[in-house]
UniProtKB/TrEMBL annotation:
GO CC annotations on file: plasma membrane
Residue span(s) of domain ZU5: 473-613
Record GO biological process: axon guidance
Membrane topology note: Single-pass type I membrane protein
Protein source organism: Engystomops pustulosus (Tungara frog)
Domain of life, per lineage: Eukaryota
GO molecular function: netrin receptor activity
Listed name of the protein: Netrin receptor UNC5
Transmembrane segments: 311-334
Family: Belongs to the unc-5 family.
Principal location: membrane
All copies of domain Death, residue ranges: 803-869
SUPFAM superfamilies for this protein: DEATH domain, Immunoglobulin, TSP-1 type 1 repeat
Length: 884
């Protein structure tokens, strides 16, 4: 047996053995020198097969001996044996000190490769004696290339995956080992991604409208394959549209039905239906009313059966009552015969809080200033000074606003003898314009007056826009690199400027305005305006990351029934379509929530949301509210019922106008789902106490045509009802307001109020704090602390082998469409979090975000770990009860 090569591990000596047969003597020679005899250990034995003597010798070699040797070769030893046959030498056995360096000469590097691509990971182990062996690990599990033909680890310590699979994504580590130690390289993350591919186009959809101008669509999805692990999204549009059109049937009236029985109010009614043919699919509705009423006693109606009971009750005073009645009739007839057009001015400031009551006497025949005799009672327009103004008419009293009063007259100046002075002058022109005098009217009520049009049988309805001079509401704030939030109170409109959207060391005065006048957007076909026109500026600003604009809308969101589009006004004033909310685009992003639309954009401008109903089942949400105030006649009380688009902007305008008229909100507003089925709305007053109140004839039920409601375009509409008390002692009013759409939904408003201001309970709709929060800048404007936001972005922007990236974050936050928009951003997670901030503007917990992160399984991102959050961050309690 010859001595074998050996390695000294640490300070442990090694033993070299040599055996010879037959042999007389054996000695070791190391590095050319004989080893001293005393350093040998000898063992003798007899070979059982041959019977010859076997001699074995051993020596120790220490680390010190090897280190002290400085020859050109490794430390070596050999044994020399003597026998009767002569001398024999063994092979040289080298002795070396074993070691393994700590640092790899080349660590493997992470890679991102497409599916089916080749992966090559290089590894050069540390220097060592003996040479280190290399083993590969994936996610801490050893790789066996013998069991997977797709993997080769034999080529110069490198790992080769011939055809990458999704399962090959992971963290790879190279481990080098010899008899001394084991060394692990740094981990290399391998991401196998899948680039998205378009599916085949689906069939063209049916035309969006049964008649008129519509569109056909077909779509495809980015699912062939679906992009994974950061793969690129499909290039191109996911939807194609072509126009389609057909003629819409216009409605025609059926014959009038039979007259109803004569009512206690001495009137009967008859109805007709718009059914030959019925209006369908946006066709022109029938002109005129579906119901008409007329007196059924040829003017000989006895006003109230209660007179008989009154005669019986006051039989003892009959003579006195008759005498008083004759006297009143005589005085009235005398005044009518002697009057010219003029003004009786009554200082009613004690009754109306400083606002004036005008009694306009009847005009003589032939007077050019006579108001149109076709005017019907109770037409109201919603802008007034703040108190009631009324005409005294021989047939009825008519409650009107300053716009209704002044518009039909030419250059009239009214002289009032109490708190403000106006002189009266007349010209020959048929209409006039009122001119307000500075300091005359209440603060905030200096406005331009609109024009009062002649009324036919239909209108108890008027648009507010024609008399509103407040064409826009506007807020502004100064924002810099830290971003912030700009909110227009009580409108639902807000603007979020993310952190770092504005360049460092720059600051801008940013404004936000809402158009309250007539919309400048010209609608096409069956389009309707779903929210206010909103302008944000300055227009020449650009951002490094998208800003988020929130606009309220009144549509009941359904992709089957609505095609919602975002439009933008160009600098030339022309409106252009930016995108449809179901489009896949990288220039804008629109997210429709139930009551608001959140828009991500890179530049400012004027924007509006329009909707095109695709079916008759498309629904607009209307807010129904009832207001009341005392009339100029101390016994009369006015009810105004509004049917307005369910946006805070529209309701805020109504509140403002009612505040100027002295109106009070009598009941919490309710929502009515108004279908696009071309049927009108009927508004009626029910259950009036019969012996306390009465309603003026022919006004108990009013009907609003479908087109006036459906195409109101954010302009409030209302109906007015005039109630009269039998006695001033009546101070409580109880009734029901029924609002129903023919062949649609219905709701009831229960009115229970005192007509005396000091006894009436005030209903507050907007919270007071809504008016305080206009512009917040810096960290306090955001719910997610900046340090936490950075951690979330760093976590989800990095591709992960298990697919837990920003796309999963978007999915958990209910952002499921147009993901190609986020894929184009440098930090998709940051833009997703900005959108989350825009959708959750009000104070509250961050529980939804915490739950989303927990569902994803990234427990390390729970914000309970942020005890070291910078002091500038908001003071959140990072628990599931109070947020992240």
């Amino acid at each position: 047996m010859e001595p074998e090569d050996a390695y000294i591990i640490k300070s442990n000596p090694i033993i070299l053995r040599c055996r010879a047969m037959p042999a007389i003597q054996i000695f070791f020679k190391c590095n050319g020198e004989w080893v001293h005899q005393n350093d040998h250990w000898f063992e003798e034995s007899i070979d059982e097969g041959s019977g010859l003597k076997v001699l074995e010798v051993l020596i120790n070699v220490t680390r010190q001996q090897v280190e002290d040797f400085h020859g050109s070769e490794d430390y070596w030893c050999q044994c020399v044996a003597w026998s009767n046959l002569g001398t024999s030498k063994s092979r040289r056995a080298s002795v070396r000190i074993a070691y393994l360096r700590k640092n790899f000469e080349q660590d493997p590097q992470g890679k991102e490769v497409p599916i089916e691509g080749m992966i090559v990971l290089h590894c050069r182990p540390p220097e060592g004696v003996p040479t280190a062996e290399v083993e590969w690990f994936k996610n801490e599990e050893p790789i066996d290339s013998l069991q997977d033909e797709n993997i080769d680890t034999r080529a110069d310590h490198n790992l080769i995956i011939r055809h990458a699979r999704l399962s090959d994504s992971g963290n790879y580590t190279c481990m080098a080992s010899n008899i001394v130690a084991k060394r692990r390289s740094t981990s290399a993350t391998v991401v196998v991604y899948v680039n998205g591919g378009w599916s085949s186009w689906l069939e063209w959809s049916a035309c969006s409208v049964s008649c008129g101008r519509g569109v056909q669509k077909r779509s495809r999805t980015c699912t062939n394959p679906t992009p994974l692990n950061g793969g690129t999204f499909c290039v191109g549009s996911s939807m194609q549209k072509v126009s389609c059109s057909s003629q819409c049937p216009e409605g025609q009236w059926k014959e009038w039905g039979e007259w109803s029985a004569c009512s206690p109010e001495c009137e009967h009614q008859r109805e007709r239906e718009c059914t030959i043919p019925a209006t369908a699919n946006g066709g022109k509705p029938c002109d005129g009313m579906s119901q008409e009423s007329e007196n059924c006693t040829d003017g000989l109606c006895i006003q109230g059966a209660e007179n008989a009971s009154d005669i019986a009750l006051y039989s003892g005073l009959g003579a006195a009552i008759i005498a008083v009645a004759v006297l009143v009739v005589g005085i009235t007839l005398y005044r009518r015969s002697q009057s010219e057009y003029g003004v009786d001015v009554i200082d009613s400031s004690a009754l109306t809080g400083g606002f004036q009551t005008f009694n306009f006497k009847t005009v003589r025949q032939g007077n050019s200033l006579l108001l149109n005799s076709s005017l019907q009672p109770d037409l109201t327009v919603s802008r007034t000074y703040s108190g009631p103004i009324c005409f005294q008419d021989p047939m009825d009293k008519e409650i009107m606003t300053e716009s209704s009063i002044f518009n039909p007259l030419t250059d009239i100046k009214v002289k009032v003898q109490s708190s403000f002075m106006v002189s009266l002058g007349v010209t020959e022109r048929p209409d006039f314009h009122g001119k307000t005098i500075s300091g005359t009217f209440p603060h905030g009520n200096n406005r331009c007056f609109g024009t009062l049009h002649n009324r036919n049988k239909t209108p108890y309805i008027q648009n507010l826009s024609s008399i509103s001079s407040k064409s826009e509401m506007r807020v502004c704030g100064i924002f810099g690199h830290q971003g912030g939030r700009l909110v227009m109170p009580n409108t639902g409109v807000s603007l979020l400027i993310p952190h770092e959207a504005i360049a460092e060391d720059n600051s801008w005065e940013i404004y936000l305005s809402v158009n309250q006048g007539e919309p400048s957007l010209q609608l096409e076909g069956s389009e309707v305006l779903l929210g206010p026109e909103v302008t944000c500026g300055p227009l020449d600003m650009t951002f490094s990351t998208p800003v988020a604009l929130t606009i309220p809308h009144c549509a009941e969101v359904s992709i089957e029934h609505w095609n919602v589009r975002l439009k933008r006004r160009s600098q030339q004033g022309k409106w252009e379509e930016v995108m449809s909310t179901d489009d896949e685009t990288t220039s804008f992003y629109c997210l429709l929530d139930p009551f608001a639309c959140h828009i991500l954009m890179d530049s400012f401008g004027t924007y509006a949301l329009v909707g095109e109903p695709l079916t008759d089942c498309a629904v607009k949400q209307l807010k129904v509210a009832v207001f009341g105030c005392m009339s100029c006649n101390s016994l009369d009380y006015n009810l105004r019922v509004y049917c307005i688009d369910n946006t805070p902007c529209a309701f805020q305008e109504v509140l403002s106008d009612e505040r100027h008229q002295g109106g009070q909100l009598l009941e919490e507003p309710k929502l009515l789902h108004f279908k696009g089925n071309t049927f009108s709305i009927q508004i009626s007053v029910l259950d009036i106490p019969p012996f306390l109140w009465r309603i003026k004839p022919f006004t108990a039920c009013q009907e609003v045509p479908f087109s006036r409601v459906w195409c109101s375009n954010q302009q409030p509409l209302h109906c007015a009802f005039s109630l009269e008390r039998y006695t001033p002692a009546t101070t409580q009013l109880s009734c029901k307001i029924c609002v129903r759409q023919v062949k649609g939904h219905e709701l009831i408003l229960q009115v229970q109020t005192s007509i005396l201001e000091n006894e009436r309970e005030t209903i507050t709709f907007f919270a007071p704090e809504d008016n305080n929060f206009l512009a917040h800048t810096g960290p306090k404007a955001f719910k997610i602390p900046h340090s936490i936001r950075q951690r979330i972005c760093a976590t989800f922007d990095t591709p992960n082998s298990k697919g837990k990236d920003w796309q999963l974050l978007a999915q958990k936050l209910s952002i499921n469409r147009n993901l190609c928009y986020f894929a184009t951003k440098s930090s998709p997670s940051a833009v997703i979090l900005d959108l989350w901030e825009a959708r959750h503007p009000y104070d509250g917990s961050l529980d939804s975000l915490a739950c989303a992160l927990e569902e994803i399984g990234r427990t390390q991102t729970k914000l309970s770990l942020v005890s070291d959050t910078h002091s500038e961050d908001p003071d959140f309690s990072y628990s599931r009860q109070n947020g992240l």
